[in-house]
Design a protein that fits this description.
heterodimer; A: about 475 residues; Cytochrome-c3 Hydrogenase, chain B; five-stranded mixed beta sheet; about 20% strand; B: alpha+beta; Ubiquitin-like (UB roll); 2 domains; three-stranded antiparallel beta sheet; about 25% helix; globular
């Protein structure tokens, strides 16, 4: 008899999802589907709005990573105006994006995945959360919370608020950062650095005993995509696209955001509101690729800052290959990116340009179509706009990082189910392992569907006759 | 000019005989909410937010359009008036698409401020969610009909202060829309002098500077009164 397992809803992720695991007659896992059950419609209701409003409207897609949308949107706006923004504005935008990467990665590592990594996948579910982590390891948890605060406060200092600051605008930014504010952040850097180093050391001890998780939480070859600098180093804002395959071969390099459609297509499936982007030349679904921290570290030659580069070398050594294809390493990559981001913040805070008053370029509508790309914490984010001659949006397409990891997340769920599912019952441990596998990607489903919903998780186990044999909801 | 004595909310005040209840109240430091009223412009009494109770009259009267009389007893803040005002503001929100979170005027909007003042915690009426356009064909300004409350402050500022009358209203009821010239895109309205007085007069994010981003639009509507006062003194 064939069966289906449904996990509904998935917990400790940003958004609402459910998972279906399909069983064969012999009880083995045939397939798994990660359904995103939200719908929001930004791509429709933004039509007719002036593109100057887009950064602030699209920021509302997400409360975790509004900055990513603000920056990608402002970048598309720069291109519609056909201006080069003032150097200070570019540096300030970079600083805000680094603050965002730090806060979002800290949230993923400490608040969302920390309970799995440090309390155990099969520990008491009632305590397997950030509060359980605070109770078990108060100093460690406090450090993580303060690290996130550091990133959030950089955003607040620049944009006036932590969430949805309408600060980056087509042509530049609205305000700079005074020397006094920069000095205050400089003082807090050593603590942030120390927390990150300790987390890195702790994670390595977990990694040493996680061979099983490494081998089953999304361990498969795929392509990787992300922005790189002209030299091929790690990049988070500006830069151009690079795609590498699992062997490390560069398939596309220095591709402008405008040409993203040459690289990526979008497929959709009836069972999920989340689209399925794929690498165009290989088609769907063979063109599976991953984005985000691990992808960025895989595509780049090096980070370009000493501490992060030393860690990157070690990560590649531990993985045993130049290309790290186990998604469990996303956690590691996140910590390396926090370290690199802190190094870059250190450099930027010493830059007197940040206090400049020349922050915004002005122009009329000079291009009717543009694409803005920025690296969100979860991966490459594309905002593609078409406008009429006055600047009203006539077409809008958003390609979100989480969407680009959609195929990989589906494969990950199937891989974990094959490894850990016993019989036709949903054991608590299995449920959480499936969720933990998803959490490695730190998916943001509100973003990826630009959709409404509550954070929740559901899983179903479905037989070959389509009957749901077991169902669990968190 | 003869003086009149009257009471507002039980307080005895005196006013000039040609003053409106609204003027008399404001001079006495008693606030009455308004939306279509703007110092320096003529009164249209359209928004009904300044309705007051006058002893002896079963009907509510607009304070902006009611001249004071001797011995008049005015109430400005009764439960009945409060309920009416809240309903009026809710109806304004229900009629068009007022999305404060992503509006250029958020934080600098009289309608938003009114909603706070009248204690509008939610809207009890069904939203009409009309399909409204945005016109940014003008080189400097734009109009977003989603945010327009048809107060006609722009129409009066353009007509009475700039002397141009580019703005007017076409259509009736919920189909009423602001238009420029004979209903052409603003950028093609040849009568417009691009003076920006309509922008100053607008209480919401309906008329904005082109290129404004969210919550960026700050204006000072009192500049209309300043212009009018300066002109009257000089001429």
């Amino acid at each position: 008899m064939t069966q289906t397992i449904v996990i509904d809803p998935v917990t400790r992720i940003e958004g609402h999802a459910k998972i279906s695991i399909y069983l064969d007659n012999d009880g083995s896992v045939r397939d798994a589907q990660f359904h995103v059950t939200e719908f929001r419609g930004f791509e429709r209701f933004c039509i007719g709005r002036p593109f100057w409003e887009m950064p602030a409207i699209t920021a509302r897609i997400c409360g975790i990573c509004p900055i990513s949308h603000i920056l990608a949107s402002a970048k598309a706006g720069d291109a519609l105006l056909a201006v080069e923004i003032p150097p200070a504005a570019d540096k300030l935008r970079r600083l805000m994006n680094l603050g965002q990467i730090i806060q979002s990665h800290a949230l993923s590592f400490f608040h969302l995945s920390g309970p799995d990594l440090f309390l155990g996948y099969e520990s008491d579910p009632a305590k397997r959360n950030i509060f359980g982590l605070i109770a078990a390891e108060p100093d460690f948890a406090r450090g993580g919370i303060r690290l996130r605060q550091f990133g959030q406060e950089i955003i607040e200092a620049l944009g006036g608020r932590k969430i949805h600051p309408a600060w980056a605008v087509p042509g530049g930014v609205r305000s700079g950062m005074s020397e006094e504010v920069r000095a205050a952040f400089r003082q807090r850097l050593p603590e942030a650095m120390e927390v990150t180093r300790k987390a890195m050391a702790r994670f390595k001890t977990v990694l040493d005993t996680s061979d099983e998780e490494v081998a089953s939480y999304g361990f498969f070859p795929s392509l990787f995509a992300g922005l790189v600098t002209p030299e091929g180093n790690w990049e988070h804002h500006g830069g151009k696209l690079r795609v590498r395959n699992a062997e490390g071969q560069i398939l596309a390099d220095q591709v402008k955001a405008d040409d993203y459609q040459q690289l990526f297509g979008e497929a959709s499936e009836a069972w999920s509101y989340l689209k399925f982007p794929y690498y165009q030349p290989l088609g769907y679904p063979d063109g599976i690729y991953r984005v985000g921290p691990l992808a960025r570290l895989n595509v780049c030659d090096q980070v370009g800052t000493p501490l992060a580069d030393a860690e990157l070398t070690e990560m590649r050594q531990r993985a045993g290959h130049r290309m790290v294809t186990a998604s469990f390493y996303y956690h590691y990559a996140r910590l390396i990116e926090i370290l690199g981001a802190l190094e870059l913040v250190t450099q930027l805070l010493d830059d007197a340009d940040l206090s400049s008053s020349v922050l915004r370029a002005d122009a009329g509508v000079n291009h009717l179509e543009a694409v803005g790309c920025s690296e969100a914490p979860r991966g490459s984010l594309f905002h593609h706009y078409q406008v009429d001659k006055n600047g009203l949006i006539t077409y809008l397409n958003l390609i979100i990082a989480t969407g680009q990891n959609n195929l990989a997340m589906n494969q990950t769920v199937a891989q974990i189910a094959r490894r850990y599912l016993r019989g036709d019952r949903l054991e608590e441990g299995l449920l959480n392992r499936v969720e933990a596998g998803i959490r490695a990607y730190d998916p943001c489903l509100s973003c990826s569907t630009h959709a409404v919903g509550q954070a929740a998780f559901a899983i179903s186990l479905i037989g070959p006759d389509g009957r749901v044999v077991d169902h669990a909801v968190r | 000019m003869a003086a009149r004595t009257l009471t507002i909310n039980g307080t005895l005040i005196s006013a000039r005989s040609n003053e409106t209840v609204l003027e008399a109240a404001r001079e006495a430091g008693i606030s009455i909410p308004t939306l279509c009223h703007l110092d320096g412009l003529s009164e249209v009494g359209a928004c009904r937010l300044c309705l007051v109770e006058i002893a002896g009259s079963p009907k509510l009267q607009p304070a902006c359009h009611t001249t004071v009389t001797e011995g008049m007893e005015v109430q400005t803040d009764t439960p009945r008036l409060k309920a009416h005002r809240r309903a009026i503001v809710e109806l304004l929100f229900a009629e068009r698409n007022h999305i404060c979170a992503v509006c250029v005027a958020s934080g600098h909007c009289e309608l938003q401020q009114l909603a706070v003042e009248v204690g509008m915690s939610h809207v009890r009426y069904e939203y009409l969610s009309p399909d409204c356009s945005v016109d940014i064909s003008h080189a400097r300004f734009g109009i977003d009909h989603n945010r327009c409350v048809l107060c006609t402050r722009c129409v009066r500022a353009c007509d009475e202060v700039e002397g141009v009358h580019t703005w007017d209203i076409a259509g009736r009821g919920t189909n009423a829309r602001l238009i420029t010239d004979l209903n052409v895109p603003w950028g093609e309205a040849t009568s417009c002098t691009s003076c920006g007085k309509c922008l100053l007069a607008c209480p919401t994010g309906a008329i904005f500077s082109r290129g404004s981003t969210v919550a960026e639009l700050e204006r000072d509507a009192s500049r209309i009164a300043t212009i009018v006062a300066a002109r009257n003194e000089r001429w």
